[in-house]
Amino acid sequence: MSETTRVPAPWEPERYELASAPMYRFDLDRRDFFKLLGAGVVVVSVLRPAAWPQESGRTRASRGDALPREIDAWLHLGENGKVTVYTGKVEVGQNIRTSLSQGVAEELHLPLEKIELVMGDTQLTPFDMGTFGSRTTPTMNLQLRKAAAAARNLLIDLASAQWQTERQHLVAADGKVLDPNTKRSAEYAALVKGQQLAQSIPADEPLATAASWTVMGQSPPKVNGVDFVTGKHRYPSDQKLPDVWYGKILRPPSFGATLLSVDSKKAEEMGAVVVRDGNFVGVAAPSSGLSAAAMAAIHAEWKSEPQPSSKDLFDYLKKNTDTASGDGDRYDVGNVDEAFASSGPRVRQTYTVSYIAHVPLEPRAALAEWRGDQLTVWTGTQRPFGVRGELAEAFRMPEDQVRVLMPDTGSAYGGKHTGETAIEAARLARAARRPVKVVWTREEEFTWAYFRPAGVIDVAGSVQSDGAITAWEFHNHNSGSAGIRTFYEIPNQRIVFHPARSPLRQGSYRALAATANHFARESYMDELANGLKMDPLEFRMKNLKNERLRAVFQAAADKFGWGKQKAGPGQGFGMGGGYEKLGNIATFAEVNVDRKSGAVKVVRIVSAFECGAIVNPENLRNQVEGSNVQGLGGALFEAIEFENGRILNGRMSEYRVPRFSDLPSIETVLLDRKDLPSAGAGECPMVGLAPAIANAIFDATGVRLRSLPLVPQGLKIS
Amino acid sequence: MATISLAINGRLYTIEADPQISLLTVLRENLDLTGTKYGCGEGQCGACTVLVEGRAQRSCVTRADNLAQKRITTIEGLAHGEPLHPVQQAFLEEDALQCGYCTPGMIMSAVSLLSRNPHPTRSEIIDSLDGNICRCGAYSRIISAVQKAATALAKSAAGGRP
């Protein structure tokens, strides 16, 4: 058993739910690989932080048995010519199973269908911190491509040795190595027959340039798409084992309530196994119907404490700065106080965002099985290794006795980082002495998961008559620091994130606080432009030097037809954009406001997006469109309402999410920068939408809305 | 306990269960037909949509014991191997899914729509599918897929190759 120093976490401070990470234990050597995977060629991908010493030179077919410890993926080319890639990343609908396969196919010169990905299985795949932060494309895709390129070179070496030919005469293509001079060729499968070669990738493995890509840059169909359209794919909530029982958990009547007493006699008489362990009360029974009935038969008494309510939320967040967790991020540039003192009046505005729920269509689910002291859990999570750590901690057992598997899951959006459902299922399975499945109801999902943080953002700025911004002050209370820095060129800035004690459980949500921070910043930019009677695009461009951002704003403006005449009253145009997770987005919106009925309709959205060299254009479009559709909810009408520790709208019939009838026309302009590394796209495209809509509503009506959601009840103007 | 007989995907099943049991629970728990999904339990999201006598129905709010004489079709019964049903094929071709969890319900709702309205307009598709939620936001692709499937079905009905 070897142990490594944990790599510093690249996540943002507001990923509150990740406060404790599991220790990384890893123990496999070369012989283990071939025992596990069969003969052939294995290439391991080693990911190290830039500050660590780089591995130098090429370690061909290493003689020693010990493999590097900081492995993030491995690739096995078997005697049957099939390639199996093992990665701890997981598929939640972002389509990385396909895009990662494309990367491997590109470098290994192998048809896509010969590649299979094993993902998010803590027994088979190397440690991975989790699938979040749009990191899969910029890191894992790159690592797998390097591993595939190394495997290809190894195959050429093998052919070169077999044929006694200089390796530079040989080429790899379509699953074969060939010698164009002699026309001799060999399938990869034949070359690896009987071999047991292991290699770790060198740091400098040259990769195909984006201009030469043939598999990447294309849009192949989703690799396992047929399984999804036929209902064959088994999501976590579809997992089953023989003799499985179904679990239910007793939930408190309100947040912060403590359990005084439990009477579970009736439930036990019904044949259910009842577990009371500290705060945990749960039942397991042979059918979900019986477990629900048994749960209903439990009588529990609770003691409740007064809790905050949503009507007081924003005051509460400003008054309850969380000093315990230390200072939040702070950025100071120039001298803001002097700049404000010497300039004209500063304009102060306050923006707010509500708590919203992820509402993944598949709720949290887990199936747990004990065999002796070995625990196996199938569950939907973006952090299978994190959940393994939570399970090990909950049951006070070593991590190597816990296996977590993550079947491709029915979405997450940052909401499935934690392992509570896995722990619940495992606790009940231990008591029931058989596999137990727990699937949260939609109401549980709305109440006991975590929310996107609410926040209050105070902005002040000062601007010259020519449109140059001279001073900028920006304070975010509670929602987070992602995207908090301005990308406009401003000589004097003070930007501060103030963590607060949140009245509700909060955590990561797609794009994190970048949505809130962009909403405040880009709304405020429009307010400044309006004060100067300057065109908002011209005003932005005057203060913007970043060429990539300028390019997306210009591309979106051109496609949108910015500057065109309005067709009539009630119509409005607006824009918002920014930089996040290595991507650049500009979004323009057209709205229509019916002043009498109050109906606000987003009619048209144009987004221009650039995230380096495009790996899969159709999937990228799908992600940008999806971000805009999902973003409509948080922008227009989604908000969690709560009162004294209870969620008031925790059902699908009470919490409105975007539907077909909310769908605007969405046009997506993709800028393909083949000269730049590929970045992820699951989050950034969302951040421009809310300010674009708010600015368009102002343009249509003269009414400035500064709270998300903007129009949960419509906008009546008398 | 009650004895419930159901004709699903051309097969007859008989189970012993609570008479109140929902069709969704019977499909998923008793018959292991897990292509039909739970999403909300109150008929609001469409993930559990199946066909009863060819018409879309929310299986989470449908009692199983009412369906004795009815023909039930789930996503598993739409095609048997290759070729896929034209709606399934169109969803693949239009990349009309991300996580795919809403997809079975979407497909069943679309099949139901096209069976009674072979040439729906865009706004008829929107009206008809408005009870189906896709949290990943693939709505415009789903509309394209339904339109594409309508064309394919019309061609095969006219005797052309599907």
Describe the model:
The complex is a heterodimer of chains A (718) and B (162). Mean pLDDT of chain A is 91; it is low at 1-11, 19-27 and 49-65. A seven-stranded mixed beta sheet of chain A has the order 13-14-11-21-18-19-20, sandwiched between helices. In chain A, strands 16-24-23-22-17-31 form a six-stranded mixed beta sheet, sandwiched between helices. Chain A contains 17 helices and 31 strands. Chain A is globular, with a radius of gyration of 27 Å. Chain A is α+β, with helices and mostly antiparallel strands and 718 residues long. Chain A has three domains: 2-228, Aldehyde oxidase/xanthine dehydrogenase, molybdopterin binding domain (Aldehyde Oxidoreductase, domain 4, 2-Layer Sandwich); 236-304 and 376-413 and 421-439, Aldehyde Oxidoreductase, domain 3, CATH 3.90.1170; 320-355 and 451-708, Aldehyde oxidase/xanthine dehydrogenase, molybdopterin binding domain (Aldehyde Oxidoreductase, domain 4, 2-Layer Sandwich). In chain A, strand 25 (571-580) and strand 26 form a beta hairpin. Chain B contains five helices and five strands; from the N terminus they run ββαβββαααα. In chain B, 35% of the residues lie in helices and 15% in strands. Chain B has 162 residues and is of the alpha+beta class. Chain B has two domains: 2-77, Beta-grasp domain (Ubiquitin-like (UB roll)), CATH 3.10.20.30; 86-157, [2Fe-2S]-binding domain (DNA polymerase, domain 1), CATH 1.10.150.120. Chain B starts with a strand and ends in a 5-residue tail after the last helix. Chain B is globular and about 45 Å long. The longest helix of chain B is centred in the C-terminal third of the chain and has 19 residues, at 139-157. The model of chain B has no long low-confidence stretch (mean pLDDT 96). In chain B, helix 2 crosses helix 5 (139-157). Chains A and B meet through helix 5 and helix 16 of A and helix 1, helix 2, helix 3, helix 4 and helix 5 of B.
